C-alpha cells in the first residue's frame, strides 16, 4: 500500500502538471504514453521490442503526435503524407513482413500490431485534442473527475452490497451493483463540478456523466479481457503498485475516444 501511495503521488503530480500546462508538453506526454502502451502490448504477446514489427508500429504510433506538434507551427498542406496515408503504409509494411519471414510473423501478428496502434493513437490523440480545445483544461478535469468517481463508486458499492456478477468470465470481481453505484457516483460528481465551474448546462453534464461512466467501465473490461487472454495480472510494471500505463489509462482511452468521435464536449 505504501508503494502504491508513493507512486500515485509522484505520477499524479507529473500528470496533473502537464495537464495544466497543456499545449505541446501535453501532446508529447500523450505520445510517450501511447508508445509505452504499445511496448506493454508487445511484451504481453512475448515479442521483442527490438524486432522490425514493433519498430514499424512505434513509428506508426508516433507519427500522429508529431503531426499535432507540427500543425501548431506550419501549414499541414506542405507535408508529403497524411496520418491516414501513414497508417496504411504501416499496415502494408506489416503485411509484407509476413512474406519476408515466411509466415513466422503471421497475419494475426500483423493484425495485433495494427489494432494496438489504432487503439492507442485514437485514444491518446482524442485526449490531447480535448485538452487543446476551447476550455480544454476544465473539460479534461470534468471528465477525469467523473472517471475517478465512477471507479471509486463502483469499487466501494461492489464491496459493500455487490452480489450479482457483471461479467465473471472477464472480470470475476465486478458486480452489477458496483457498476450502477459507479454510474450514480459519476453523475453526482459531474453535477458537483459544474456548480463550481459551470462550463456546461446541467442536462448536458448528466448525459456526459452517464456516457463517461458507462464507457469508462467498458474500457476497463476491455483491458481485463486482453490481460486475461494473455495470462497477465498487470499490463506492465512502470508504476509500482499500479501496474502499467494500460492499467491506469484503460478507461480514459475509451472515454476520450467516444467523446471526440461524437463531439460530446
TrEMBL record:
Enzyme class, broadest EC rank: transferase
Membrane topology: Multi-pass membrane protein
UniProt keyword terms in alphabetical order: Cell membrane, Lipid biosynthesis, Lipid metabolism, Membrane, Nucleotidyltransferase, Phospholipid biosynthesis, Phospholipid metabolism, Transferase, Transmembrane, Transmembrane helix
GO molecular function: nucleotidyltransferase activity
Enzyme Commission number(s): 2.7.7.41
Pathway: Lipid metabolism; Phospholipid metabolism; CDP-diacylglycerol biosynthesis; CDP-diacylglycerol from sn-glycerol 3-phosphate: step 3/3
Bilayer-crossing regions: 12-38, 50-70, 82-100, 112-130, 136-157, 178-196, 202-222
Catalytic activity annotation: a 1,2-diacyl-sn-glycero-3-phosphate + CTP + H(+) = a CDP-1,2-diacyl-sn-glycerol + diphosphate
Domain of life according to the entry: Bacteria
Localization in the cell: Cell membrane
Xref: PANTHER family: PHOSPHATIDATE CYTIDYLYLTRANSFERASE
Family to which the UniProt record says this protein belongs: Belongs to the CDS family.
Protein's name in the database: Phosphatidate cytidylyltransferase
